[in-house]
Prior knowledge:
By secondary structure, this protein is an all-alpha fold. It has a single domain (about 25-335), classed as Orthogonal Bundle (ABC transporter involved in vitamin B12 uptake, BtuC), CATH 1.10.3470. The chain has helices spanning about 5-25, 30-45, 50-70, 80-95, 100-120, 125-145, 150, 175-200, 200-210, 215-220, 225-250, 260-270, 280-295, 300-315, 320-335, 345-350. The protein is globular. The protein starts with a helix and ends with a helix. Mean pLDDT is about 80; it is low at about 335-353.
Amino acid sequence: MMSVREKRQSATAEAVRSVMKRHGRWSRLEIGFWLIAVAAWFLLPGEHLILTEIVIFAILALSIDLVLGYAGIVTLGQAAMYGVGAYASGLLSIHVTGEPLTGLLVAALAGALIAFPTSFLLLRGADLTRLMVTLGVAAVLHEIANQASWLTGGADGLQGIAIDPLFGTFEFDIYGHTGYAYSLVVLFILLLLARFVTASPFGYSLKAIRDNPLRASAVGIPVKARLVAVYTLSGAYAGIAGALFTQTQQFISLDVLSFQKSADGLMVLVIGGTGYLYGGLVGALAYELIQDALSSVTPQYWQFWLGALLIAFVITGRDRPRQLINSISARISRPRQPGRLDAVTVADKGKPT
């Protein structure tokens, strides 16, 4: 017979499995989101270029959300892995092969190789130190790319990139038809992997580290190993985003390693919210649409109005979009049955008028 302690442990384990299983389910709102993204390929053929840019931006924001929203690592150096992935994919296409899937794999490895040694520097400081370290790494790589013009093209950019047709059939055209479908499939696969990671015991341990690293260490969670692992994974994601940029644009400039690239990723998360994966996706869509709309209405002052909107988002709370999305998802997933009264309705009816 099982002892009382074993029964409690079994009940606790079952409760944990139930929670992870519930959080790993697909909601109707998520399914609708992806159906709309696929329908955009058919309904908006003239907007595939900007849609491709949004998808790539969403992958970059997703890589930041993995370390910021789940592990609590504040970073301004995600452009380092993004830029290295972009250059790795471009150089591979010029000197070895232009096969796009191989370029994605090489870019992911390049981003992870930059993130892995950098992660050990992040373990030595708090938020301000992490900001400066990540920013410094990106600045160093930016200057290296600028000086090594024989390899990267320097300020003139890396030219002569030629990407082979995807699966030998689908060519990357100037209208972005193949690029959008290709980037969207990559984003979906990366989101599936991120969902699996964040809904696993590994993901819950990251949340515990984010909330209280000392307590997480006290209960036996290997804090340093977890942070190194998630930062390396986020570097691979950023490298893939850079490779997609290279393959769809077939040109690379030093901007891929600029501070602005990391800052834009953080602004996307300010808009979309952190810690629920879709913040980067929703934020990237909103950011690009707002930027496009403001630049067309006020070409000279669009950055002013964009800054004002970001301040408004911060004042109202960066978790508001996530709360709104969770509320809508809950209502869609659990529609009220006809003829059934909930506890609030019954209580209200019982109040004297």
